Amino acid sequence: MAVDREQVLRSAAALLTRKSTATMDEVARAAGISRATLHRHFAGRDALVRALESLGIAECEAALAAARTDEGPAAEAVRRLVREMEPSAGLLAFLYTENQLFEGEEQNEGWARIDAALTELFRRGQESGEFRIDLTPAWLTEALYGLLASGAWAVAEGRVARNDFTHMIVELLLGGALRREEP
Q: Which of 62, 66, 86, 95 is most buried (CB neighbours < 10 A)?
């Protein structure tokens, strides 16, 4: 029986999103395969995490393309982007905690491409007067990553409704937490 590598990765992502400390045995069980079969595809946890990283980067890049972040007002582009990234948010939340992915010379250049695209989106919003200029585009990019991860965890734990994901992230990112006086 042939093993569907993408199905194994998606099963691993679903498990590791809920339980980041899951063992390779647990990952194999979640994927419906033996540990030996899992090991034939991924030599160890690091290889599995690197494969999940590649999947996460591909999904982020697909979300960026689908969101058409260079079209229309930047705030609307951010809203489209968060909506497009929502299906991958759990995987991104897991990857966000895997420090070895973001350190040293082995960092996947896909993250740099994604960072550059997001930074450009926030820069465009600042130049058009939509976004405040006292926060750097790099910081707004990091804030978006953090909110996506936090939102995924809150939804997974049932603390917030899945249907509120995009609204919560976009409104907090773009509107802040300060209460505005009603006119």
A: 95
R_g (Cα) of the chain, nearest Å = 18
DSSP three-state, residue 141: helix
The encoded tokens of residue 80 equal 């489209």
Helices (H), 19-108: 24-31, 35-41, 45-67, 74-85, 89-96
Whether this model's pTM surpasses 0.85: yes
Distance of CA 98 to CAs 21, 52, 92, Å?
11, 11, 10
The per-residue pLDDT for range 149-173, each reduced to its tens digit, is 999 999 988 999 999 999 999 999 9
- For 30, residues 6+ apart whose C-beta sits below 8 A from its C-beta are 11, 12, 14, 15, 22
